[in-house]
Amino acid sequence: MSLPYSYKNKIEIPESEDVDVVYAVDLYTDYIRSKGFSEFKQEEGFIHFTSDYSLVNFKYPVQIEIKKAELITVEYEIHLMQLIKITIALIIFIALFSSFGMSGFLWFSFIFSTIFFLVNLMFADSHIQKVIKSSYLYLSLNPPEGEGFTEEQKEWMSDKNRCSACGEEITIYDLNCPDCGLKLKQSKYTIPLDVTKYQEKRFKYHYKRKD
User: Hey, which of 22, 47, 137, 208 would disulfide with 64, CB 3.0 to 4.6 Å?
Assistant: First the structure.
C-alpha cells in the first residue's frame, strides 16, 4: 500500500493453476470494457479505466495488472488525488465556517478528514474487488455455492472438454466456443478445427492476408 497518493492491493484467484496468463488478461480486458467505465484503455500489460463508485462519487483512475506465479493474481492501484483534493476542500470549508478554537479545529479536522478519507477509500476498494470477483474468469473457477449456478453448469465449469459458459463440447483445437463464441484458452496446437463433430452448426471463415 502507498498512501496517500495511491492505494495498491491484489486479489489471488483460487483454482487458477492451469489458467494461462494471456488468456486471463484477454478475459479481464473484455469484461472490464463491457462494464462501460470511462477512459478505458489497455497498454503494455496494464488495463486502465476511471471509476466513480465511492461515498461521494469522486472519480478515481484505476490501473490493473494481471500476473501469474502459481496462481493468477490481479494487482490493482487506485489513484486518490481527486479524493485528497475533496478532503482538503472540506477542511478549508470547516475552517471558514466553524466556531472552534485553533486547538479544537485541528483535532476536529484531523479526525473528520481521516474518517472521510478512509471511508471513501474503503468504498472504492470494495467496488474494485467486486468488479474483479464478479468477472467470468473468477466465477467460473470459484462459483458461489447455491448462487446463480445449477449443478449442470457447475459440471461444465469443471469439464475441460466443455465450454464453461454454455456446456458445448470443445476440443484443444478450438479458439472460440462453436456455440456461444466464448474465447477459449489457446493451446500449442495449430491443426485446423475439426468440424465433423459440429454437423449442425454454421461456421464463418475469415481470410487474413499475410504481409
Answer: 47
Where do the domains of the chain lie? 6-140
CA distance 20 to 187: 9
* Predicted structure pTM score: 0.62
Find how far residue 58's CA is from the centre of its chain: 19
Cβ burial of 17 (10 Å; 0-12, 13-18, 19+) is exposed
H or E element in which residue 8 lies: strand 6-12
Class of domain 6-140 (CATH, top level): alpha beta
Is residue 104 classed as helix, strand or coil in its secondary structure? helix
- Residue 162 CA to residue 110 CA, distance in Å, equals 57
